[in-house]
Amino acid sequence: MVKAHYPESLNEALTIKAEKKDQSLLVMGGSDVMVVHKTAPDVIYLNSIAGLKYVEQTEEYLRIGAGCTYAELIDDELVPGILRDTMREIASPAIRNVGTVVGNICNASPAGDTLPVLYAMDAVVVAAGMDDNGKKIERRIPIDKFILGVRKIDLRENEIVSAVEIPRSSYEGMTKLSHTKVGARKAEAIAKLSFAGICKVENGKIADIRIAFGSVGITVLRQRDIEEMIAGTPVSELEGKKADILARYAEVLHPISDQRSTEGYRKKVCLNLLEDFLNNICE
Amino acid sequence: MKDISVPVEKKDHRMKMSGRAEYTADMKLPGMLYSSFVRSEVPHALIKDIKLPELPDGYFSVSGSDIPNNHCACITDEQPVFADKEVMFVGEAILLICGPDEKTVKKLCAETEVIYEELPAVVSLDEATEVALGYEYHKGDTETAFNNADKVISETFRTGYQEQAYIETQSAVGVWDKDKGKAILYGSMQCPYYVHSALMHSFELDESHVRVVQEVTGGGFGGKEDFPSLLGCQAVAAARKSGHPVRIILNRREDMSVTTKRHPAILKYDAALDKEGHITGLRADIRMDSGAYPGLTSVVMQRTLLAALGVYKIDNLDVKGRAMTTNLVNNGAYRGFGAPQAFFAIETLMNHIADKLGVSPLSYRQMHFVKQGDETGTGGKFWHHVPIPEMIEKAEEMSDYSRKYAEYARPQSGRYRKGIGMSIFFHGCGFTGSAEKDFIKSKLTLHKYADDRVEILASNTDMGQGLKTTFSKIAAKVLDIPYEQIIIENPDTDRVPNSGPTVASRSLMIDGKLIERAAERLKAIWEPGKEQEIMEQYKEDRECVPWDIEKFHGDAYPTFSWGLNVVELQEDTLTGNTDLLGVWGVYDVGHVIDERIMEGQAQGGILQGIGYGSMEHMEAFKGRIRQNSFTDYMIPTAMDTVNNGIAFIDNLYKDGPFGAKGAGELTLVGAAPAYEAAVEQASGRHFMEIPLTPERILLAE
Ligand SMILES: Cc1cc2nc3c(=O)[nH]c(=O)nc-3n(C[C@H](O)[C@H](O)[C@H](O)COP(=O)(O)OP(=O)(O)OC[C@H]3O[C@@H](n4cnc5c(N)ncnc54)[C@H](O)[C@@H]3O)c2cc1C
């Protein structure tokens, strides 16, 4: 028998979770859960929690409540344009009406469409839990530490992700934010690969640059060492460095061939998109 | 009544829109059992042993030994209903386990162990050496044409699988009436009488001891032409053994892995050109993957060969085709039935030659078009008007093709590059060869009830394409009674005569004509308030060059439908992805019987054709279909196209009702080469293979 829970608050959900632990399954929009026929003795439906549906700004962060659907976020002007554009290309209206960014993160698929942008933005996952005394505790985990592998996340058995936080500095003041999803068609397609590039050109120099690739490995690929090498480069010298940058990424990109695409294509297009990003960095 | 083309409400509209339509999956018969298959896990092996788990009470395992004649009739009968000694492809059915609980049935299947002795397997067309069947035909003197050629151009084209992707998977419910010794089958299908014959054959029954009923059918596209015969035999075998009705419903992955698909093909062409660039001789050598069992392959291949020279008059021809046996899933019927492969090749060849000669593809085609009175490749005749000039004029008006072609031919730069492509094609209407006359001999009945409603009794099926509506319109218009007064039900072989299968774009043209004639006769004797009946039978009295299959000579079709597609797109040079900017279709289907239905046929057909040419990538990997879900097998969505521009040209055909000709398949046939031509112009490269995926466009396979 399966018992369905419809908690009305995060605390109520955390209480159930603390009790049922790994015997329970969290469901937000259910659009990933549904297709894999996953179930558990206790199913906790989180989409009934009104308190998880919010977008708010602090001085440092944009905080997106775990309950926000794609459709809601696409219409929310506080959400950075690059993330909204990314969400517009996910699935189809029906899925966007139920699917959530937090679901996308917790599902930890290599092809999760929001992940490259979130990695590039250094997003932080907020995991809430209840300790033995019934006290709520929060852990804040950088996304690249939270996602451990294919469908593997750093979430404890009494925890629920309550929000995702995006540093405002990762998009405000950035001069170029670019995302491309490469799928086999324009709707309802799992990405063959995706690219996110964010950078800030200041006083003729690349002050900050973040580059992430999706669907080319078990998790999103982001090479901070190469980014650091590029940072500080005067724009006028970028052309000269381009071949070296591309060669470095070529060395670390190891996509596979599968039923959706080929290794050669994935790699070539990743590099094409990166090169295009570098070529147009001042646009 | 207004002009017959004016759309009416489809006969099945309310039932489907309200959700009341009941499909096979909705059937619940008392005592009905669920079922699941044990299927081959290997491409080729001897079955050494089958270790069944202990079956609980009420559960049955059904195999070939439960069938009087374990051969499934489909043209030939090589294919066993259940593999007994040897498996020939991954997914071939070995056992069906049935019982009252679906989960238990699945569990029992998973627990069944089949011990194989693996044999060498042929898992690609390239490595196939065994010829399943073949045809060839010749015309003129090809050798001299090639000896005297100014230039010879040789190219080899490849086409892939295409999956019909009907929304409703294959499904059937079998019943065995023990008292009467009668097999009854309900299911999703295109051809009730094919299933009927197959059941007679496998269960050694006479006509009156088999009953087949078509249920509401959620799409077919050819995929439910032959496969339901196999499924039907499997369901009835289980019902006969268990004494219960047995339901079989394939799940999507299973359906995509084990049902028939469009034949992959390799098409090798040599063209001899004279000084002016005219094609003076053409050699085509075509190989197709038949799969493990030939099924419909012979007829599919005939159509491929008949389309091999396209819409062109070429006097010297050597056309040869061979279907190769592989240890892969069987291939069969898919809308277009062998023609899309050939039109892709010949149309692309024409583009490539034009390009090599430095002339525009359209003007190069214009040097070769057939016209009324010309001989066909097989010594038949184009008896009727060939409307290519009007179609081009219409297409130019709608798409501005020539101006755009010239514009995009200039050097382009930047990330996005544009291209426009055109294809011109025909579809031979109805069955290939003399099958209508010699084999189908279609019969149908109009039955008038005392309340003056008239029922059409025919075995043709509506699978969404709108046949119930168009048939009814024809009867209503001739009888001059309201359309609502016509009754047409899903066929039940206990009630309807055999008016043939619903395939080959034949139903409306052939059987629609019988309805027209029957209605004229009924009208002449019409007595209000009286029950009356008219039976009409196919007869052939037109002028023709008789078809001879041995010599592959004569008129293969009574007439042709004609089509023209234009595709305009832009290619993203970074990703190889394309955005369609314009898609146009101009068609001659004789006369349109219902504008809305025909518009639907055209919109869907073009998009299926573009899918075939662009994204519908399916491959067998180590003998296993790799893209066997809608997540991995990509069919285009509405987001992938624009508002396609469609136009029809009237070209009345006297042997079709109200002048109508075959229409269903035509709309798919030419889209792939038009798409490919547009990509070639945008990218400045020639390609030889479809689907032309971004991987292929960027040469990164
Ligand atoms: C037809 C279809 C098309 C799709 N197309 C795309 C696409 O184009 N791009 C794409 O990226 N994805 C796509 N998806 C996948 C899916 O829609 C997305 O991953 C979506 O973001 C999942 O969100 P959800 O709220 O529905 O997640 P759910 O299915 O509810 O949950 C996903 C996973 O996260 C866990 N979880 C959910 N909420 C929490 C929480 N608060 N704390 C901890 N764990 C939690 C669940 O237990 C589950 O394991 C598609 C899915 C379908 C069915």
Task: Describe, in plain words, how this protein is organized in 3D.
The complex is a heterodimer of chains A (283) and B (701). By secondary structure, chain A is of the alpha+beta class. Chain A folds into two domains: 50-169, Uridine Diphospho-n-acetylenolpyruvylglucosamine Reductase, domain 3; 173-282, CO dehydrogenase flavoprotein, C-terminal domain (Enolase-like, domain 1, 2-Layer Sandwich). In chain A, 31% of the residues lie in helices and 26% in strands. Chain A has helices at residues 10-20, 70-74, 81-88, 93-96, 101-107, 115-120, 143-146, 224-230, 235-252, 263-279; strands spanning 3-5, 24-27, 42-45, 55-57, 61-65, 124-130, 136-142, 147-149, 152-153, 159-167, 176-182, 193-202, 205-214. In chain A, the strands form four sheets. Chain A has a five-stranded antiparallel beta sheet with strand order 4-5-10-6-7. In chain A, strand 8 and strand 9 (152-153) form a beta hairpin. In chain A, helix 9 runs antiparallel to helix 10 (263-279). The mean pLDDT of chain A is 97. With 701 residues, chain B is of the alpha+beta class. Chain B folds into three domains: 31-121 and 164-258, Aldehyde Oxidoreductase, domain 4 (2-Layer Sandwich), CATH 3.30.365; 344-432 and 553-699, Aldehyde oxidase/xanthine dehydrogenase, molybdopterin binding domain (Aldehyde Oxidoreductase, domain 4, 2-Layer Sandwich), CATH 3.30.365.10; 442-537, Aldehyde oxidase/xanthine dehydrogenase, molybdopterin binding domain (Aldehyde Oxidoreductase, domain 4), CATH 3.30.365. Helix content of chain B is 27%, strand content 24%. Chain B is built from 18 helices and 26 strands. In chain B, the strands form seven sheets. In chain B, strands 7-15-14-13-8-26 form a six-stranded mixed beta sheet. In chain B, helix 8 (339-357) runs parallel beside helix 17 (671-683), helix 13 runs parallel beside helix 14 (507-525) and helix 15 packs across helix 17 (671-683). The longest helix of chain B is centred in the last third of the chain and has 20 residues, at 595-614. Chain B is globular, with a radius of gyration of 25 Å. At the A-B interface, helix 10 of A face loops of B. The structure holds flavin-adenine dinucleotide (FAD). Residues 25-33, 35, 46, 66, 90-91, 95, 98-100, 102-104, 106-107, 112-113, 155, 160-161, 188 of chain A line the site of flavin-adenine dinucleotide.
